């Protein structure tokens, strides 16, 4: 009897922890073990990718992301969520010293915009750094132009970055190296599609390719015409 109760309690704890991970989108990008764990729980709950609805799918009821933020662009000019109103936005969080994940995702965004052709005219791609210590406006300016001239790079103080990351439930943490100046940032990897009012229209998880991203964006654009 006691053994059965322990099994039930353990199963309940697993479900609670797994659901918490799904809700908070915990580290799906650069943490393989977390990704595998969320994948199993997501499959059990009928979701597609680790911790996410199917790529570009509808946002689950009750899930809200985003909100006001105050950052600066690559010219050092103030930039808030109000600058994005009236246009669709593709938003990605990362950092310029990222060795593989960030450049891959930004290239996918750029390629998807190219596939959309004229439909991309009202879409603004935005890259927000999670490494404000190194990603100055000058550094971001040199970085974003490598991918697409439309890509806007944003940075700010550590407190401002923490605020916008919290609003979008972005996980990030410094991974110290032997040299204090050379470190990596562990972070979640999601592409956010925001509509013209700034509301979240779709989420695209790790592994989404350019074709899938373009199709997902086109679907959301058609739904709001």
Structure description:
β6 (172-175) and β7 (184-187) form a beta hairpin. The radius of gyration is 18 Å and the shape is globular. The chain has two domains: 2-44, no CATH class; 70-223, Glutaredoxin. The strands form three sheets. A five-stranded mixed beta sheet has the order 5-4-3-8-9. A two-stranded antiparallel sheet has the order 1-2. Strands 6-7 form a two-stranded antiparallel sheet. The protein has 225 residues and is an alpha/beta fold. Helix content is 37%, strand content 18%.
State the main characteristics:
alpha/beta; two-stranded antiparallel sheet; Glutaredoxin
Q: Give the helix/strand class.
A: alpha/beta
Indicate the CATH architecture of the largest domain: 3-Layer(aba) Sandwich
State the fourth-level CATH superfamily of the largest domain.
Answer: Glutaredoxin
Q: Spans with pLDDT under 50 lasting ≥5 residues?
A: 5-10, 12-54
N-to-C span: 59 Å
Q: Could you please say which CATH topology of the largest domain applies here?
A: Glutaredoxin
CATH C-level label of the largest domain: Alpha Beta
The total number of structural domains is 2
Compute the average pLDDT: 80
Number of helices: 6
Gyration radius, to the nearest Å?
18 Å
Percent strand equals 15-25%
The strand count comes to 9
The string of secondary-structure elements, in order, is HHEEEHEHEHEEEEH
Strand order of the largest sheet: 5-4-3-8-9
Q: Which percent range fits the helix content?
A: 25-40%
Shape: globular
The major pleated sheet works out as: 5 strands, mixed
């Amino acid at each position: 009897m006691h053994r059965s109760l322990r099994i039930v309690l353990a199963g309940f704890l697993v479900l609670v922890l797994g659901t918490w991970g799904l809700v908070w989108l915990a580290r799906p990008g650069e943490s393989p073990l977390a990704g595998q764990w969320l994948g199993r729980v997501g499959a059990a709950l009928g979701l597609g990718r680790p911790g996410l609805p199917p790529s570009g799918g509808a946002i689950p009821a009750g899930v809200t992301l985003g909100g006001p933020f105050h950052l600066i662009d690559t010219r050092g000019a103030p930039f808030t969520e109000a600058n994005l109103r009236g246009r669709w936005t593709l938003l990605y969080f990362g950092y310029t010293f990222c060795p593989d994940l960030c450049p891959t995702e930004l290239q996918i965004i750029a390629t998807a915009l190219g596939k959309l052709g004229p439909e991309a005219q009202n879409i603004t791609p935005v890259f927000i750094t999670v490494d404000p210590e190194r990603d100055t406006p000058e550094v971001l300016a040199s970085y974003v132009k490598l991918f697409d001239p439309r890509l806007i790079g944003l940075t700010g103080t550590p407190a401002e970055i923490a605020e916008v990351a919290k609003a979008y439930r972005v996980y990030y943490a410094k991974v110290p190296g032997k040299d204090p100046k050379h470190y990596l940032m562990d972070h979640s990897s999601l592409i956010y599609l925001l509509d013209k009012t700034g509301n979240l229209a779709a989420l695209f998880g790790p592994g989404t390719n350019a074709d899938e991203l373009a199709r997902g964006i086109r679907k959301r654009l058609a739904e709001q015409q």
